[in-house]
Predict the structure.
Amino acid sequence: MNFDDTPQEAEFRATARAWISANAPKQYEDELRKSSLGRTVLKNANILEVAKAWQKKKADAGWACLHWPKEYGGRGSSPIERVIWQQEEGPFGQLSRMFIIGHGMCGPTMMAFAREEHKRTYLPPLASGEKVWCQLFSEPAGGSDVAGLRTRAEKDGDDWVINGQKIWTSGAHYSDYGILLTRTDPTVPKHKGLTMFFLDMKSPGVEVRPIKQASGASDFNEVYFTNVRIPDHQRLGEVGDGWNVSLTTLMNERSAIGAAVSTGFPELFEYCSSLMLDDGPAIEDRAVRSKLANWAVKASGLKYTSMRAISALSKGERPGPENSIGKLVAGSMIQDVATYALDLQGASGVISGEDAELAGRFQAMLLRAPGTRVEGGTDEIMRNIIAERVLGLPGDIRVDKDVPFNKIPTKGR
Amino acid sequence: MNFDFSDDQKQLRDQARKFLAEKCSPKAVRVVLDGKAPYDKELWKGLAEMGFLGVAIPEEFGGAGAGHLELCVIAEEMGRANAPVPFSSTVYLAAEALLIAGSDTQKKKWLPAIASGEAIGTLALFEGKGNPSRKNIKLTAANGVLNGVKKPVADGAIADFAVVAARTGSSGRDSDISLFLVDLKAGGAEVKSLTNLDPTRGQAEISFKDCRAEPLGAAGDGWSILTQVLDRAAVLCAFEQVGGSDRALEMGRDYALDRIAFGRQIGSFQAVKHMLADMYVSATLARSNSYYGAWALSTNAAELPEAAAAARISATQAFQHCAKNNIQVHGGMGFTWEFDCHMYYRRANAMALGLGSLTYWEDQLIDRMRKKNAA
Ligand SMILES: Cc1cc2nc3c(=O)[nH]c(=O)nc-3n(C[C@H](O)[C@H](O)[C@H](O)COP(=O)(O)OP(=O)(O)OC[C@H]3O[C@@H](n4cnc5c(N)ncnc54)[C@H](O)[C@@H]3O)c2cc1C
């Protein structure tokens, strides 16, 4: 058991560190360091532009999507090298949040199911951040129950014609491409009639409408499809095999989101270390200490769980459903941490934004946190995954499993 | 980086698991639980023969000289099996105190006896209510003679010797405390068994009346040695707690697959599934924190105090959480003496107090994190 770099790893780390130090957009370092979930904003710059510029610079020097093969815009690095890079990139890594869906989910799905010429065409600009991708799965009728989606794809010559609506599509408003899950056969049970495509978001008939979130921000959208044409060669996997294809995406989604999610604990600890309460320093208050200690061991437990996963990866083992615990634990933790930080602020905790304590850092966290517990699979779905796939407990009873999709009731009563 | 045990260490774990499955069945545990024996002597002898008692004791003192990572994997299995033997008091507390502070003569006298299973040792620290604290140590030592009462003392009624924390000064500083070694079979110490939450590991009251004792470590070093011993024991106990958590989760899972209600396996009810998933989550977080503690312990890293406190808190919570919900999954059956669930519930709650309660360790963790952040 050790945390030491091998000589090769140490060399990789030194090279990465030197390059980052010479090239990173240092003028934003402080702002990025102080940002936390729900609040990565730059005062005097457009964050999308800054993120794209940093990604392009990385790509040109061979530091983008490290674990992807070189011919698709990556570096062909080992999982450990990818982790070393993340450690060295530090706060600048926050800029990659813009690309997490493309890099974490769409890219791997393309790599597994697209034709070779498409991979060579579409993946390098995705890796370099020049093109942004989104994931068009969820619908009003199909969130947790993804396979309940209704967006239709009908064959017409060499094309497919798409009609329907997606919802909660993160980043659709600035995306160039998307992967799209559709229903191609409503007469068979729901998991069997799905087909996956990728498409150009600028295609005629695609309409993106931003949704205003509980936090007030607009990071996700409704997307409407009216007679949108997708050529058959942009199909991913077989007709009717979309469910299997989407499982690849969802598995990657959980590890991409799980690894990136923050807990809010370092921010709270730092806050309590300097905060004065009526009776003295917060950090000397018995109740505060107890709360902090309980969150501290959750945060460290998550950190070392991911280190164990990385060790397994480096030995060639595949990460499994046990990775679901990262998002599950961190999601409610960040919500509780933010609530507690505001409690410590007393009546003034109600003030948010620039006028608030720490420029509203914990208020922003509180308003973003509910999304973390829902996106990429709700807490309940995560617990089901652990119970069924890790512990081997029976699956939920599914009354619609063998029923043709068009015979499934659509209302609660 | 390799944040995992080695193949050899995993092999040792398998070996310990197999041995304990054979020699330490729930039926064997119940002999002690039912009060028919103070501890499982046969098992103790067997553990000595396997080399498990001296696994972290250097060869020159009769041990296997393997190391603390090896001791961690064995500790996990002791916890899984709920072994009714004085393992933690002898191996984590007494032996570690000797390793840290013992003179060559003291080590030569006691460590080989521990490794061979001939001597049971313990730490006599507490004096009634309260957590580890200088102020709570009232027992006095003067001219090598102890006077005072210690309770609870883990495995005190079966121990051959005790490491005793005593007051030797009144300056109000750490240096007021010194440690002593007492041969409990030599007279001068009166031992009384106490009933306790977990009868598979006894507790005692020991009264020292003009009891002869020899110093362990330099005079005035007692508190600093104790802190080190408690930190090391916290990591080792955390592995026992992780083993116990895993076993409680396994029992709950198996029962959920077995028991039918409303025409279905109860494990198909989401409330039950989610309860078991949460047990898995807390056991996993505890395991990961404990691995970090194991690394710090085995390398004597500067991070050990913080890592030990985190492992302690996380593993205590996980074991309590898994043990109580295991009973819940078992329904009424879980509440019977006949089912094994209560053994783990007892052990979880007794272990939560043994090295000082969570309150104490929460304080330790925050103090240590502050110190690190200030540095
Ligand atoms: C910030 C954010 C970003 C997102 N980004 C994207 C994106 O880019 N692309 C995309 O396709 N989607 C995206 N989503 C959608 C997300 O995947 C869904 O919101 C999520 O899967 C839940 O689906 P739902 O909203 O339909 O809720 P529902 O499925 O209607 O769930 C409602 C409640 O019922 C519970 N529930 C549902 N089924 C079960 C069950 N079987 N057992 C127990 N409880 C159950 C849920 O846990 C929840 O509490 C995003 C969501 C958020 C919040």
The first helix of chain A runs from residue 7 to 23.
